[in-house]
Inverse folding.
């Protein structure tokens, strides 16, 4: 019978292991150590990839806390660039019958100036508007003054006049159609729009560019082809409010121009000389106290007095057309001194509009 080997415990309680197993264990240990060293060496040869570094966020409360080419948007300084909401459009409002910027709208103008100076390729259309309470002519002129006031404020901040264009919509583009103070206040405004964002009803044609401003107190302080409007020299062009309509008045039974009306004639002469294609109808009128024949003759004398005054300033007679309406076109029908004074007049109107 074959004997079966039996493992015996020693006095210490450890199991006796054959000698060959010690050799196998040592070799396995050496292999594991070599593998670990190899992995560490390969890792050391790999290129280090740094983490993405984020630019620090600059928090702000107002634009002035940011850089010259930044706006404060949602409490963070944002770089000014195409499409930035703060540079796309804005509105400023005016008091009744006024073209002076209000203090509460100054910040709006300053922000738009910051946009325009940071992005010299940016163009801005300034659309002046008025409420409907005045005459069409008055509202057109008032809206133009409002657009010019914004342009002047922007240029005062260093914006180039070549970046600006102005248009007057008068009372033709109301934001509100109600007849109350709140509605009128909404319509007394100038809209500031990037040329890529057109105003309601605006055509693709770019409005005339506003020339760099020259401050003035009267027309004589401007160039020969300019008028002084809202203390700024403006180039004479078709549709300019100062060249579209005017009136002079006369004393009772007289056809001599009054001193206080000479400036009106000088301004119209400036318009006619600057724009040789412009034609002007001069309509003489009288109050109803004289005979029809007398009033017809008096109306003609008044119209001729204006024509001669214009020609004396260098206007060509080919640009003028004289007509007498006598007492047939009264502005006022009452029988009192104030009404008669209104009817003793000569109206100067472009040929494109029928004489009043």
């Amino acid at each position: 019978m074959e004997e079966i080997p039996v493992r015996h415990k020693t006095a210490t309680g450890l199991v006796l292991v054959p000698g060959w197993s010690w050799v196998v264990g040592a070799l396995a240990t050496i292999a594991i150590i070599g593998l670990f060293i190899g992995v560490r060496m390969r890792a050391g040869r790999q290129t280090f990839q740094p983490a993405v570094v984020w630019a620090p966020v600059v928090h702000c409360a107002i634009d002035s806390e940011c850089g010259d080419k930044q706006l404060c948007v949602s409490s963070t300084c944002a770089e000014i660039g195409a499409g930035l909401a703060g540079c796309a459009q804005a509105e400023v409002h005016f008091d009744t019958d006024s073209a002076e910027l209000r203090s509460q709208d100054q910040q709006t103008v300053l922000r738009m100036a910051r946009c325009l100076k940071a992005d010299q390729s940016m163009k801005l259309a300034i659309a002046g508007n008025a409420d409907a309470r005045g005459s069409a002519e008055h509202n057109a002129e008032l809206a133009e003054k409002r657009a010019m006031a914004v342009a002047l404020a922007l240029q005062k901040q260093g914006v180039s006049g070549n970046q600006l264009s102005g248009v007057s919509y008068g009372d033709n583009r109301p934001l509100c159609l109600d007849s109350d103070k709140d509605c009128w206040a909404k319509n007394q405004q100038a809209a500031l729009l990037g040329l890529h964002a057109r105003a309601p009803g605006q055509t693709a044609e770019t409005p005339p560019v506003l020339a760099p401003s020259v401050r003035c107190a009267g027309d004589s302080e401007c160039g020969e082809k300019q008028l002084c409007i809202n203390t700024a020299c403006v180039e004479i062009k078709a549709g300019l409010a100062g060249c579209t309509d005017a009136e002079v008045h006369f004393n009772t039974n007289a056809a001599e121009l009054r001193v206080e009306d000479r400036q009106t004639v000088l301004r119209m002469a400036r318009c006619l000389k600057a724009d040789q294609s412009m034609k002007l109808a001069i309509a003489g009128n009288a109050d109803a106290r004289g005979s029809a024949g007398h009033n017809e003759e008096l109306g003609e004398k008044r119209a001729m007095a204006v024509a001669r005054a214009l020609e004396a300033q260098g206007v060509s007679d080919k640009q003028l057309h004289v007509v007498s309406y006598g007492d047939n076109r009264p502005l006022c029908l009452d029988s009192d001194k104030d009404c008669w004074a209104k009817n003793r007049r000569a109206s100067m109107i472009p040929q494109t509009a029928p004489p009043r």
